[in-house]
Amino acid sequence: MVLEKLGSTLKSGIKKISNAIFVDKKLIDAIIKDIQKSLIEADVNIELVFALTQKIKKIAYDESIQNIDKKEQLVKLIHDEILQILGGDQKELKLPKKASIMFLGLYGAGKTTTIAKLGKYYAKRGRKVALLGLDTQRPAAMEQLQQMADKAKLPAFIESKEDAKKNKKLTHTKRSLEVIKQHKKDLTKYDLILIDTAGRDGLNKELIKEIKTLDKATKPTHRLLVMPADVGQAAKTQADEFQKALSIDGVIITRMDGTSKAGGALTACAETKAPVFFIGVGEQIHEIETFNPESFIQRLLGMGDLQALLEHVKSATDETQTQRIEDRLKEGKFTLLDLYSQLEQMNKMGSMDKLVGMIPGMSAAKVPKDALDKQEAKMKNWKSAISSMTEDEIENPEILEKQTTRIQRIAKGSGTTTTEIRELLKQYKLLKEMMGMQSGMADGEIDQKMMQKMAKKFKGKMKF
N or C: which terminal CB in the chain sees fewer CB atoms within 10 Å? Predict the structure, then answer.
């Protein structure tokens, strides 16, 4: 996960404090040195780093505090101070029933991609979302927004190629106003409008004037600044400038998964009192998360982040497919095709090590990365094997066990082994039986004895 090295250092420091018989100067100096190095490498402001380490020293060197109390106070201090420099007790972004968000930012911040991600995020939560493209300056900006909207399965209202040719003599601002005028009636059908705007290399007078004009024309309920994590401490200047010029409501930080300097962007925003509402954690359309400093620290410290995991699952899974499988189970049907669709949905959620890091207790368990990689590879092989089967084999996998030549053919055609095919069939049978029991449980058909039998039957057998 992002800031993994910082998380490792904090976990190590807290563990050393908790396990120490005596909290002496040598121990504290070593812990402080490690924390300072990791925070600076994460691009956190040196003044904040110095203030934190001074507070640690103050408690550690205070001889009036008993050793047990001292350990507890130090652990709490490290947690609370990191929480504060990440934004403290932050509130979530609350939108009215009819809302619109204008997205601001410089070139390369990732506005267009973020708009599609956030659109998908809110559409999954019941909002009727539309995207509005007002970036008439950047070549192919409209085309990119349309492509991202298609990926998110959302409508996009943009300047067509014909209109672009017709209005090419107009200024970029006037062209954007024409787009608003053209689609104004259609946009009233939606309860959340996400507005893409043009960027610049820097926040200059021209950009400020353009955004203020568009702001007046669209009257957005919120204005969010989009910044990449790799800007580091420069985020403070950006947030300050946009805040003074355009009165932003908060920030979205993109590319959190691709830089070790994300700490600079997060802490800089906290310093400017510009709340970070969302973070982009990957390239896939669902890889955006609400940013909660407390949950973020829990993940840093290996405690997991169940809320983020649930959001991740909700954003990545196809509710129609899930309902279809539930209906088929009630009818007593569950084929390899259903298993395939489940594997597809798991694949959409991202790498297994990313998901494991969100599960409370699993990060501390230190599941070997190679074990997770093997599991991912195994699921890819299973998908390949299912793709190499006939329709009859998919619908009635029992025939494979009776005719081993079929298994050999599938293995050869999918580049897998017969052992992997047999393991797939074994897991399919167990999963089908287990899901059947769960379906019965939901209908109140399984008593306590049956639940105990179910737990005993599947213990140690499932390998997902």
Answer: C
Phi/psi of residue 222, nearest 5 degrees: -140, 150
**Tokens describing residue 306:** 């169940």
| DSSP per position, 216-229 | HHH--SEEEEEEEG
Q: At what angle do helices 111-123 and 141-152 cross, to 10 degrees?
A: 20
Q: What is the dihedral of CA 438, 347, 311, 281, to 10 degrees?
A: 160
Dist. CA 107–CA 93, nearest whole Å: 24
Nearest to 312 by CA among 361, 342, 346: 346
Which residues have CB under 8 Å from 418's CB, separation 6+?
A: 404, 407, 408, 411
Q: Distance between CA atoms of 296 and 183, rounded to whole angstroms?
A: 39
- Helix 4-19 × helix 67-85 angle, to 10°: 160
Q: What residues are paired with 227 via a beta bridge? A: 253
Strand order of the β-sheet with 276-280 is 156-157, 129-133, 192-196, 99-104, 222-228, 250-254, 276-280, 288-290
The CATH architecture annotation of domain 317-458 reads: Orthogonal Bundle (1.10)
Distance CA 168, CA 163 (A): 8
DSSP characters over 115-164:
HHHHHHHHHTTT--EEEEE---SSTTHHHHHHHHHHHHT--EE---HHHH
Question: CA of 127: how far to CAs of 95, 122, 201, 287, 356, in Å?
Answer: 11, 6, 33, 18, 29
Is 99-303 a domain of CATH 3.40.50.300? yes
pLDDT in tens, 1-46: 456 778 888 888 888 888 887 888 888 899 899 888 888 888 888 8
Per-domain boundaries in the chain: 4-85, 99-303, 317-458
The alpha carbon dihedral of 266, 267, 272, 273 has a sign of positive
| Percent residues over pLDDT 70 in the chain | 75
Please report the DSSP string for 411-443 in residue order: HHHHT--HHHHHHHHHHHHHHHHHHHHHHHHHT
Q: Residue 228's closest CA among 247, 263, 256?
A: 256
Q: Domain 4-85 belongs to what topology?
A: Four Helix Bundle (Hemerythrin (Met), subunit A) (1.20.120)
Rounded to two decimals, the pTM is 0.65
Q: pLDDT by residue (tens digit) across 347-405?
A: 555 554 555 454 444 444 444 555 555 666 777 888 888 888 998 888 888 888 888 88
Tokens matching residue 145: 């927004």
Alpha-carbon distance values, 298 to 324, 326, 382 (Å): 35, 34, 34
The values of phi and psi at residue 203, to 5°, are -80, 95
Residues 94-130 as b or e (16 or more Cβ within 10 Å = b): eeeeebbbbbbbbeebbbbbbbbbbbbbbbbeebebb
Q: Identify the CA nearest to 458 among candidates 429, 419, 420.
A: 429
